Amino acid sequence: xxxxxxxxxxxxxxxxxxxxxxxxxxxxxxxxxxxxxxxxxxxxxxxxxxxxxxxxxxxxxxxxxxxxxxxxxxxxxxxxxxxxxxxxxxxxxxxxxxxxxxxxxxxxxxxxxxxxxxxxxxxxxxxxxxxxxxxxxxxxxxxxxxxxxxxxxxxxxxxxxxxxxxxxxxxxxxxxxxxxxxxxxxxxxxxxxxxxxxxxxxxxxxxxxxxxxxxxxxxxxxxxxxxxxxxxxxxxxxxxxxxxxxxxxxxxxxxxxxxxxxxxxxxxxxxxxxxxxxxxxxxxxxxxxxxxxxxxxxxxxxxxxxxxxxxxxxxxxxxxxxxxxxxxxxxxxxxxxxxxxxxxxxxxxxxxxxxxxxxxxxxxxx
Length: 366
Ligand SMILES: O=C(O)CCC(=O)C(=O)O
Ligand SMILES: [Fe+2]
Hints:
The chain has 366 residues and is α+β, with helices and mostly antiparallel strands. The protein has one domain: B-lactam Antibiotic, Isopenicillin N Synthase, Chain (Jelly Rolls), CATH 2.60.120.330. 29% of the residues lie in helices and 15% in strands. The chain has an eight-stranded mixed sheet. It has a four-stranded antiparallel sheet with strand order 6-11-8-9, with no helix packed on it. Strand 8 and strand 9 form a beta hairpin. The relative contact order is 0.17. The mean pLDDT is 92. The site of 2-oxoglutaric acid has 11 residues, from strand 5, strand 7, strand 11 and strand 12. The site of fe (ii) ion has 4 residues, from loops. It comes from Coniophora puteana (strain RWD-64-598) (Brown rot fungus). InterPro entries: DIOX_N, IPNS-like_FE2OG_OXY, IPNS-like_sf, Iron_ascorbate_oxido_reductase, Oxoglu/Fe-dep_dioxygenase_dom. GO terms for molecular function: metal ion binding; oxidoreductase activity. Belongs to the iron/ascorbate-dependent oxidoreductase family. This is Clavaminate synthase-like protein.
C-alpha cells in the first residue's frame, strides 16, 4: 500500500491558480478581537452575518502545532483498513471515530459517494485522556492516542480558546445576557477535531466531482486549516460555487447551524463542499484539519429570544426574515446524530432519506 504524505506547511505544493473564481473573505486579526478592538470586532460581525465565513490570522495555532496534527492524521490514515475500521463511526449517528471514504452519499440520487476519509477526535475525550473517556469509550487508533498529549490536546485547547472568544463577541453583539452562549458550550458535546485526507484526483475527473458533500456545518463554529484548494462556498443568492483560496497562517472560520438557529438566522451558516483542488494541485493528496465547536449535547436548538437583554430585538428581527429556522425540536446532540446518520450510504434507501440529513441550507431564504 503506498504511504500517504502530508504537506509540511505550504512548501512543495503547486500554487493555487489565479484563473479560478474565489470568494473574497474578510481577514480578521484574532489578537485584535481578543483585545477588544471595536473596529475589528465590527468586521468579524460583518463577516459572520453576511457570508458566515472569514479568514483568521494571529490565531495561535502555529505551524508546529498544525504539522503535528497532520503527522498524526497521516499515521492514522496509513494504518491498514481493518485496523482503522475498528474505530468506524458506524451507521447510527456517532460522529467521533474513523470515517471510511465512500460511505457518505454526496447527493440525493444515490449514485455518488464521497472520497473523503477522516478521523474525528472528541474534545471531551481528548481533554479527559488517558481516561476514562466519556465519548468514544473504546479509544482511538494508536497514532492518535500516542499524539494525544503532545499534539491533540494543545490543538484542541487553542481551538477552544479561539472559538470561545468569538462566541463571547457574538453573545454581546446579539444582545444576549452575559454568558448565555458560554453556558451553552460548557458541558459534554459533539465538539471534535477532524483530520481529513482526500486522494489525488485522476486527470479525467470533473472539477465538480464532489469529494466532501455540500453541507452546512452542524455545530456553532468551525476553525479550519488547509493547504490545498478544493473548498468551495455557494454565497447566498448565487448559483455558482466559488473556491476559498488557502493562505499560509490564515485559518478559515465559519458559522454552523446551531449558531444560525440560536441567533434567529442573524448569524449565517453557509453551505460549502470540497471538490478536487484546482489546477496543478489536483494531482496531490489533500489534507485538512478542523476543530468544530458544538453546543452541549442536551441544548435545545431554538432561537434565543428569551435570553436577550431588555430592549434587544435583533433575534426576533432575524427570525422575521428566516422563519424556517425555527422548525426543529431537536437538541444539538440529536441534530448532530441525525445529520451524521442520514447522510450514510447504508441508511439511504430513497432521496427522502438523504434529505433527512440536511440542515439549515434547505430552510434559509437565499
Ligand atoms: O476540508 C475542507 O477544506 C473543509 C472541510 C469541511 O467543510 C468539514 O469537514 O466540515
Ligand atoms: Fe464543513
